[in-house]
Write a structure and sequence with these properties.
- The chain is an alpha/beta fold and 267 residues long.
- Helices cover 39% and strands 22% of the residues.
- The strands form two sheets. Strands 2-1-3-4-5 form a five-stranded parallel beta sheet, sandwiched between helices.
């Protein structure tokens, strides 16, 4: 699996937990992206889409989530929506009151409605007991995540064929060859493009997608001049083609419902 470990740490305690979690994930053969909120940005992880998200935090006053973690979570949701495969961990101190202990961990778990157990460490990870708790928690999350499909991802059975244009000639040939065609114009490092891609994957599993073809056209492959020649002003843009003619153009992010509406209206 491709796993994102994203965390914030005040004095290094939560970072220590994150390091142990990371080591366990890598020892199990998984690829890990590492983001420390307030130090790194989500963009530094490359493609924000991961199979599993492990989020960690210390707790601010009154058990609140630190602001830098809130900002990172906002960026994550903007890029990929609310992932289903999220597990949370963190550190806290019961001396400030049980009601505030690891409050940020509990808030994040509630926000993502995660089905996984939380990992809460008193103060800092030390001794064999904490090391074993971190190891067992990580192993459990990895096992469950591989067994439990993400309900927000498309099913294995889809009814829409997907093609990729690597050149303007590929584009022209696909438009001519497929009478009921959706075209997704996108580019790298575009959160809206990532979100539209997820929408199209969800739509692809619906009955309305039966018999359709999706053509994905990437700016970096066909060139800016080609995009400019088509009059494209924004990425992403979704176009609807019928019998080789463009019948609708939808700039910006489109939800699965909006995609279905466009198909129903024009195809």
């Amino acid at each position: 699996m491709r796993i994102l470990i994203a965390f914030t740490s005040l004095s290094g305690n939560t970072r220590d937990v994150a390091r142990q979690v990371r080591a366990r994930c890598e020892a199990s053969g998984h690829r890990v992206s590492w983001i420390e909120a307030g130090v790194d940005t989500l963009a530094e992880a490359g493609d924000p889409r991961h199979d599993l998200y492990l989020l960690g935090a210390w707790s601010d006053n009154a058990g609140r989530t630190p602001s830098e973690m809130k900002h990172l979570i906002a960026d994550l949701v903007a890029a990929v929506g609310k992932p289903a495969q999220v597990a949370v961990f963190g550190t806290g101190e019961t001396q400030w009151g049980e009601e505030y202990y690891c409050g940020a961990v509990r808030r994040m778990a509630a926000f993502f409605d995660t089905p996984y157990p939380r990992l809460e460490i008193e103060q800092m990870p030390h001794g064999e007991r904490d090391a074993l708790a971190i190891q067992r928690w990580t192993d459990h999350i990895l096992s469950e995540a591989q067994r439990m499909p993400d309900p927000r991802m498309p099913s294995e059975t889809t009814t829409m064929q997907t093609l990729h244009a690597s050149s303007p000639d590929d584009y022209t040939a696909a438009v001519a060859a497929h009478p009921r065609l959706l075209v997704d114009y996108y580019k790298d490092n575009c959160p809206g493009c990532t979100m539209l891609d997820l929408s199209l994957k969800k739509f692809a599993a619906q009955p309305d997608a039966q018999g359709l073809v999706l053509l994905k056209v990437k700016l970096e492959q066909v060139g800016e001049d080609f995009f400019r020649g088509l009059g494209l002003r924004q990425t992403p843009t979704l176009a609807v083609f019928r019998e080789g003619a463009e019948v609708a153009r939808l700039p910006g992010f489109q939800s699965p419902v909006q995609v279905a509406q466009a198909v129903g209206a024009h195809l």
